[in-house]
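Hi R.,

As promised, here are both runs. First protein below:
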Amino acid sequence: MDIRDIVTNQKISYKKAINKYLVKVDLLSVIRDPDYFMKCVKECEQNRIEEIERIERGDDDLES
């Protein structure tokens, strides 16, 4: 998988992207929970908001 920043075209590590820009789908959870994907989207949005806040405070760790 080649994950890239749309502005800089720099690679984004899987560790930094998971649960923020992409999710690993648990097939059984998809079947059991009709809201599974909405929950995933909410988690990703919350993680991204937290990342933006860290960047704005100036304490963003670029490697995480």
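And here is the second one, sequence first, then its structure tokens:
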Amino acid sequence: MNNYIIKEMTEEYAKKICNWKYKKEYDVYNLTEHKVTLEVRTFNKRAIKCYLDFGFEIKDKFIKDTFDGKDEFYYMEY
């Protein structure tokens, strides 16, 4: 497996990524080795429902500083 580290996203690099081809079935559903985590604002009911339907679980609720003040978030894991 290749590990790619993006140090700076340039337009040229973005175009290169958009042209990548993956010939096998996508493995996003087979992430047994890694946790996928999200921080979602608690008022974003539609996104939360979508993530729950997909199989994410709410693990924690916390307050976080944002660019426009403090807000409440859910920490979700898959």
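A quick note on the second one: The helical segments are 11-18, 45-54. Let me know what you think.

Best,
J.
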